[in-house]
Recover the amino acids of this structure.
């Protein structure tokens, strides 16, 4: 038989059922005007997702966590590349920042983000960069929470899973374009999952090619969109070929056909970028290079001694438990997406945020259904059953309050105040509330200031993780030897770089071949300890973070 459209959250007992039943009896009919007091209450009372949004925005902009967003120096070259494009009114196609790759073809596949963040930086400085990133992160998790409730999760379960997902994602709370990919992924999931539940809304699928036009020019994470399309397309195909009823099979066939058309349109939309199909070839060559994948930290498997990784592990265990207690049959796409989220999160650290978001969205309704079933099961221990009943009762009460809070006034006001503060140098009421800066304990802030004061113009060799910071502070007067654009430099170059940074045999020949006269190395590193003992190099500056070395006989 034809699958019926899903009920709204609370349309049956146990899933906010009593809450919405009570609302249906007490609220006026749609045609009846709402009392002014009710309208004011809806406007002034913040919802839980409003509070989540505000908490994340404020904690990431006006607290000590603000510097965390500038924990990756790559934002430096994003800003400077955006400056170049805004000045030249053209997309950068060759490397402008390094001495070793100057003039080489460069796929600036995040060019749209670069231009956007450079415009923000020109008006609001680093405070604006941090605020923009914080708003995107906050919007992602607020939307995720709202979707968990809409898909049947109760309030306590949804809050718990969201905290775990945010904890796992915190390892990548950075001012980089990947945070936009998180938001696109949530939107992509919502469109595809709602279509699978309600196929009659298939026209909404045409938003996906439109979104792809932006996504492909903002971040390489656009590939996640195609991964989701493949999962839901395969799920529809399975229903078409193996469903027991003819009506369900026909619906699966139509869904397969529609998703195939949308996938084709999305593929065409992904070609609308400055590099055309060559971008896809470049990304494939980059991600299929085993040496790069095995030596770039974010592509390595998670180290579960960290807090973020442990949050993901707990979330994964909870998801598996929720899957085990689920009473209803899984849709094929749900099983496929669970497997995909688990595997991708365990495969690479950079996948933890998106994998955690997927798991929380999937597990929230499953865990809620399991708790509701346990609350009504006489075979469950009385104390545990009463606990589940109390949780459900609390969820119903809070669900009613949550359903009435739709003004979103406080997030708008909060963003407005933060924007005003950022526009005034981070000052408000004579106090400094925002002061986004690169952490001097993490980056060579003092050494770079000395480089500026001394007017050093020759290229500087430094760890790839510092390259973006040097580009931000020194370009165009001084170039770097390399930075963290690993796809630009390639395997052979990075092998030589590792030989130098680890002070392995042949390091001196590598520096000679690159014509390096200045080296900026972390204090206490193998390279800095070695250069201190070599007569051909002398120490020019030293602080707790970095040591600047000059080749003897170098002219500035």
């Amino acid at each position: 038989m034809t699958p019926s459209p899903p009920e709204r959250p609370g349309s049956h007992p146990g899933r906010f059922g009593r809450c919405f039943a009570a609302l249906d009896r007490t609220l006026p009919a749609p045609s009846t005007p709402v009392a002014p007091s009710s309208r004011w209450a809806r406007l002034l009372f913040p919802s839980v997702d409003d509070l989540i949004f505000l908490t994340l925005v404020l904690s990431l902009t006006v607290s000590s966590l603000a510097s965390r967003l500038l924990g990756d120096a790559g934002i430096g070259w994003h800003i400077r590349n955006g400056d170049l494009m805004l000045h030249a009114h053209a997309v950068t196609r060759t490397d402008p920042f390094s001495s070793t790759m100057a003039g080489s073809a460069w796929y600036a596949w995040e060019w749209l983000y670069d231009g956007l963040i450079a415009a923000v930086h020109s008006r609001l400085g680093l405070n604006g960069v941090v605020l923009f990133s914080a708003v995107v992160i906050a919007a992602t998790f607020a939307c995720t929470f709202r979707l968990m409730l809409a898909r049947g999760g109760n309030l306590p379960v949804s809050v718990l899973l969201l905290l775990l997902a945010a904890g796992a994602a915190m390892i990548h709370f950075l001012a980089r374009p990947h945070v936009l990919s998180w938001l696109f992924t949530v939107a992509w999931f919502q469109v595809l999952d709602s279509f699978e539940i309600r196929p009659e809304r298939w026209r909404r699928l045409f938003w996906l090619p439109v979104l792809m036009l932006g996504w492909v020019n903002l971040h390489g994470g656009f590939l996640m969109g195609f991964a989701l399309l493949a999962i839901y397309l395969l799920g529809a195909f399975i229903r078409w070929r193996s469903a027991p009823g003819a009506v369900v099979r026909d619906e699966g066939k139509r869904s397969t056909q529609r998703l195939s058309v949308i996938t084709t349109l999305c593929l065409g939309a992904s070609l609308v970028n400055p590099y055309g199909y060559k971008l896809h070839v470049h990304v494939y060559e980059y991600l299929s290079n085993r040496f790069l994948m095995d030596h770039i930290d974010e592509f390595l498997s998670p180290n579960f001694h960290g807090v973020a990784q442990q949050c993901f592990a707990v979330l994964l265990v909870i998801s598996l438990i929720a899957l085990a207690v689920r009473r209803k049959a899984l849709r094929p796409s749900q099983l496929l997406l669970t497997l995909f989220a688990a595997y991708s999160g365990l495969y690479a650290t950079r996948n933890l945020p998106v994998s955690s978001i997927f798991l929380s969205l999937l597990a929230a309704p499953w865990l809620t259904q399991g708790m509701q079933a346990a609350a009504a099961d006489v075979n469950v221990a009385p104390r545990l059953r009463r606990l589940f009943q109390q949780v459900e009762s609390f969820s119903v009460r809070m669900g009613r309050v949550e359903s009435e809070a739709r003004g979103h006034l406080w997030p708008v006001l909060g963003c407005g105040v933060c924007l005003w503060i950022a526009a005034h140098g981070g000052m408000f009421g004579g106090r400094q509330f925002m002061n986004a800066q690169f952490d001097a304990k993490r980056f060579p802030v003092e050494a770079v200031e000395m480089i500026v004061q001394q007017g050093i113009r020759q290229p500087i060799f430094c760890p790839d993780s510092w390259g973006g910071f040097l580009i931000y502070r020194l370009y165009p007067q001084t170039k770097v030897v390399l930075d963290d654009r690993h796809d630009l430099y390639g395997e052979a170059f990075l092998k030589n770089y590792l030989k130098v940074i680890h002070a392995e045999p042949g390091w001196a020949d590598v520096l000679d071949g690159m014509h390096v006269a200045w080296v900026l190395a972390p204090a206490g590193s193998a390279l800095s300890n070695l250069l201190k003992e070599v007569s051909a190099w002398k120490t020019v500056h030293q602080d707790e973070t970095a040591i600047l070395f000059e080749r003897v006989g170098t002219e500035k």
Notes: The radius of gyration is 27 Å. Residues 111-150 form the longest helix (40 residues). The chain has two domains: 17-70+107-409, 445-551. The longest strand covers residues 537-542.
